[in-house]
Structures
1.
Amino acid sequence: MPPVNSSNSPGTLAWPASPAPSCPVLRLLAGQTALVTGASSGIGRAIAIALGHAGANVVINYLGSPKKAEEVAKEIQRCGSRAISVAADVSKPDQVQSMFQQTVAEFGRLDILVNNAGIQLDAAFEDLTLDQWQRVIDVNLTGPFLCCQEAVRLFNKQGINPALSCAAGKILCISSVHEVIPWAGHVNYAASKGGLMLLMKSLAQEMAPRRIRVNSIAPGAIRTPINTAAWETREAYDDLLKLIPQKRIGEPEEIGRAAVWLASDQSDYVHGITLFVDGGMTLYPGFETGG
Ligand code: NDP
């Protein structure tokens, strides 16, 4: 659908249109194997499909949606790459270990890990239960820790295969603009993403001499089921745009394309960074008219 100018707010793009560019994915990952956690939906789904289009074989991890995960696998197979779906709760060590074992059994190796699975359980601070706090930390922070550990062990064992990549392995963490922007009413989520930032950076420092590259992508507001309330009505969408200098929501495919680049040798000297893909959300939009 083409973008339409909003009548009540000149220069603003009307809900639900989003003029995100449609660009081809370059085949930068031929022959490599990628594991994407939480790939049955939203951003993980788009990353898995983009990696498949880039030539990678893909393991599609999911928690409770086998049908949706299988549909992602079929879409990847249609573009000529191989794909399997694997159920695992990323916060459970035994399930994570089994997922990595299944990856190696199917594809013989792993080159790229994308820590994408994440949840929100929101509450005002005084109402936030210990269970809500713990579950978000378990999935969003302990999950990446467990997956990174399994991936690093594998990358160490495999070493560098120059026919595939000049790195021994690549790890991407899907954090959030809330790794730096505080978020009232979402203390557990913001704490998990802030923690993920220093997990990523500390791991990047430790892994650099082994040529294991570790980076993050921090999405801004992306149109997925996790934040439906922020874009599904015209009123909510207009409110959301106040936080986005580009005046449009992002699409999952835009994170997919960033992930392909960050996982490829095109970005080999990029190490330990967070790539913000947020339409300018981290630019203090409250100051865009001079403050
Ligand atoms: P969705 O809710 O669309 O997808 C979440 C995915 O995570 C699903 O595939 C779900 O699997 C999976 N999942 C949930 N819990 C677990 C678990 N314990 N183990 C394994 N998989 C699990 O969310 P998004 O695509 O929007 O979010 C993806 C990531 O991007 C998250 O880390 C989120 O924090 C981050 N992000 C999203 C933004 C946005 O605007 N959408 C902005 C900034 C960051 P299943 O469906 O099978 O249950």
2.
Amino acid sequence: MTSTSALLVIDVQNDFCEGGALEVASGSEVIAPINDMMEASEIVVLSQDWHPDNHRSFAQNHENCVPYEVMTMPYGPQVLWPKHCLIETKGAEFHPNLKTGFAQMVVRKGFRTEIDSYSAFFENDKTTATGLDGYLKSRGVKRVTLAGLALDFCVFYSAMDAQALGYEVVVETEACRAIDLDGSLEAALIAMKNAGIRVK
Ligand code: VGL
Ligand code: ZN
């Protein structure tokens, strides 16, 4: 018998697609393959980046800071982003072409003002859990496939946490697009392969 697997669709939201506040180049190209993958998956989970306006990861909330610079936070280095995925805004909504009806669970992350959350499992302090691990374990999931945005940030951190939590992990790169800040894409691909993640 094959083990139970889940598809984790990471942050396919308006702000990460073309014209969004933190646009990922060609971001919406992930939607068609993800819709097909969702239709064929037993368990589908969507993650949704979900920030209050005063979130500490936003460059505008720090004096004399610009987007994409790195700041040291109590939990470590943090890239400062343009404001994105604000709670209850259009930018935070899933892209209208994403077939969200396939999802059985939606996990929101990044809603605590002081901590950013790239991973769908743990916030950037690496200890505050989102609850996704408990959900997957209680459904008997052994294997996770990841797709979505952005490959070198939220998909990457989610995949690394999934691997560390003991899941068998596959990343479908054709159904991902990257931000690629200072070589972050190459670094992410190398780190995932070194960790034993299957990067397809
Ligand atoms: C993401 C930066 C900030 C992502 C979310 O979904 O990859 N990146 N917030
Ligand atoms: Zn974010």
